Amino acid sequence: MFQSNARPRMDSVRPLEPEKFNDGQRAGEAKTSMADQRSCFKCKKTGQIARYCTAVDSTTKKAGAGVVVKTAEVRKPAEGHTMEVTDDLQSEVVGGMLKLASGKSVPVMTNCAALRDPEKTRSLGLPVLKGEIGGREVDVMRDTGCERVVVRKQLVDASQLTGECCLLLRIDNTALLAEKAVISLRTPFLSGEVKALCIPDAICDVIIGNVEGARRPEDPDMSMVVGAATTRAQVKREAVTKPLRVPDIDGHVGVDREHLIKLQQEDPRILALVDAGRTSRRGGKIVSFEKARGIVYRRYQDLGRSVDVKHVVLPKPLREYVMSVAHDSITGAHLGIRRTKDKVLSNFYWPGVDGDVTRYCRSCDVCQRTVKKGTVPRVPLEKVPLIDTPFKRVAIDLVGPINLPSEAGHRFILTLVDYTTRFAEAVPLRKIDTESVAEALVDIYSRLGVPEEVLSDQGTQFISDCMKEIWRLLGIKQKTTTPYHPMCNGLVERFNATLKTCLRRLCSEQPRQWHWYINPLLFAYREVPQESTHFAPFELLYGRTVRGPMHILRELWTKEIEEPDVKSSYEYVLNLRERLDDTLKIAREELEKAQGRQKRYYDRTTKRRKFSVGEKVLVLLPTDSNKFLIQWKGPFEIVTTVGINDYRINMGGKEKTFHANLLKGYIARDQDTSQATTEERPPTSSLAIPAASVTVIEDLGGEHFNDSDCEALPELGGWGSEETVNDLKYGDELTLDQRRQLEEVAVTYSSVFSDRPGTALTEEHCIGLTSSIPVRQRPFPVPYAMRQTLRDELKEMEDLGVIRKSSSPYASPVVVVKKKDGTNRVCIDYRRLNKLTIFDPQPMTPPADIFQGMEKDQYFSKIDLSKSYWQIPVRKEDIPKTAFVTMDCHYEFLRMPFGMMNSGATL
């Protein structure tokens, strides 16, 4: 490897005899006359080949270098000191390998010490790559004939030297004392802290020999090459495995009994529950709160089912963690709202658990991204303006690629449909580049005329610069659909389906002849009346019925040929124009009817959905691996509204337009809820502007978004208890002054803050009848299992002053309806009484009008009346008309009941 500039001794190298070569390598050719006439193409001598030529200059040998290192340690001499070896080496070159006296063979390389240029070193075929020493970029060579790591002395700092030396035997029979150093390498062949020998005239900056951990020359680690390009295969092999995302539970590992008791004592809502000591009874179900061994429990008893359970009342800091375990964990499996709530209520409870679980599940990022497409309702159809001029607007699209090309190599079909006449065209294509599509369109325009508008999808063939220039030259206005919403171009999409179906049937025997069936298929499509217009496309385009197979068959069978009226050209044009005008007018009327009918059918399962600018949404897009698989991606922000149902979305710096059917509102989770108590949150600035917010939760249907009813029993009593002004909750964002002002207002009007219905003194519910004959019905039978429940409900209503015992001649039956949550609702069947009731035409203000009037308002208040119907008294003379009868007793309403015709108008 390391040699002086002098040429090594080659007198001992013996050329290989031609006869020996023939006998050893080409035994089968030794007897031929051609073998003796082979010559070297370098020295032109016969009897040898270039591989074993002895006249070739040794500087052209492309082999590795050999280094023998004596392991004996010696004193450090003067730097770069060279001494001669007294023991003469016996060497012999055989096949490019130098055989030493020790019996070891190493590759021959000459004049390498003079090759300081890395490019020249690479030209010799040596494995030289880029690497680093202490952050500096260097050239690194892998030498299989070396037994150590060698580095150029100029690249080593004095602090890296160990003070030891090593005797290095070079291939030119000279020895050199090289200093040892510990260096940090980062190379494709070896990396890490290694001991290296430092010499000033190394062939390369770093030479790596056969040391432990070194990679073979043909297998370098290319990721360690400085500035090297990374291939896709390397990225795939070296892809870093992403760590598994697990919920953060560090803040809840240390929760024990004492900590739980402390958190409960710091929660004012829990203290209020214990101090009140109230017990709620409703329908055989009892709810109470008690403290056992310092922990507050909620006790729930169902006497009918013999259920008696105790729930731990959770303080605020632990609620979100419990919900995450019940919903986000592996055992939670991201189930729906109802099942998640059942999990939580199996062991825990807190005031407002229903709303918290509902909001937590609705704001789950995983659930929102994986919800089924069908659970998001479609928006209603919008009427498209009808076109009454033939070929004013056309729709174009491409069909394909077709798996079985035609004999002529066609794999695609260009389709065109006119919006007015429904006249269709189809052209088979071998390729769908812009030039091929443009030529086919121009060929169609040459027969039918150039349209004013063209509607297409956003395929590259239709929106390329070349096609835009064609539209400009022809004076055509281009319109495109939104991405992944082919419904916008439904006219041509429906024709595509018809075209593929008919072609599949026509060419079933000769599949590769399908391109010959396109024109007959188009004739059949244009000849028959279209469902929306009730006219054939031929009639609307030409103003006459074309002669087709049916006409020819009739003429052959009947021998009847209609004699045409002889008219002048002028008369024919006038009649044709009149006939076309009348036909198009009728076709437009039929199109309007069809459009209304289709919209009515489609809108049955739709729901009006609107998004605001700045709102976060998820977009239904194909996956990165398969365009036929779709998933919700985002969230993205809405930039602006385009039209009625289209929105422009900001997607990573690019703005794209999408239809509302591909969008779904994204509900962000409030991270600071249930994470800290009120005292732990930073105080709000006194200059903050007070604001109220209303959260609107949209029911999107489906099991995942299936909102359950409220819990069977109220949190704090219903009929047997009363909430007061002390139970009011104030927002944590309020300042101290704002909170104090609200408390003063609440105390001033404390009488209205109650869950027991009051009495309105300004209005009474009146019942006007068209007949004075009392409506009387027999009571409906009630199952024995529900009779006690009915008695309890009526007793509670009587205690509240809503009903009283009656002797009225009127009697309507009672119906017990089972609610979703398993509880029962008492309803009165007033249907026969409502038939005789005089209708109150007082209209209710639509919500849209109410919201329109609040456009410029800043503050919004949401007021929930406590049993609002039962706060309005019934006019005294009309009380007997509200009477109802049960299996046990006869009652009448003192307050306005549910189910009467004019109850909503009175409210």
Automatic annotation (TrEMBL):
Residue ranges, compositional bias (Basic and acidic residues): 8-29
One matching Pfam family is RVT_1
- Top-rank taxon of the source lineage equals Eukaryota
Domain Reverse transcriptase, chain residue ranges per copy:
798-907
Q: Name one GO molecular function term.
A: nucleic acid binding
Question: Cross-referenced SUPFAM superfamilies, in alphabetical order?
Answer: DNA/RNA polymerases, Ribonuclease H-like
Q: Which CDD domains match?
A: RT_LTR (cd01647)
Tell me the Gene Ontology biological-process terms attached to this UniProt entry. DNA integration; proteolysis
**Region annotation Disordered: where it falls in the sequence:** 1-31
Q: Where is the Integrase catalytic domain?
A: 386-545
Q: Which UniProt keywords apply?
A: Coiled coil, Endonuclease, Hydrolase, Nuclease, Nucleotidyltransferase, Protease, RNA-directed DNA polymerase, Transferase
Q: Which InterPro entries match?
A: DNA/RNA_pol_sf, Integrase_cat-core, Integrase_H2C2, Retrovirus_Pol_polyprotein, Rev_trsase/Diguanyl_cyclase, RNaseH-like_sf, RNaseH_sf, RT_dom
Instruction: Note whether Coiled coil occurs among the keywords.
Output: yes
Instruction: Point out the coiled-coil segments of this chain.
Output: 577-604
Q: What is this protein called?
A: Gypsy retrotransposon integrase-like protein 1
Protein's organism: Plakobranchus ocellatus
Upper classification of the organism:
Eukaryota, Metazoa, Spiralia, Lophotrochozoa, Mollusca
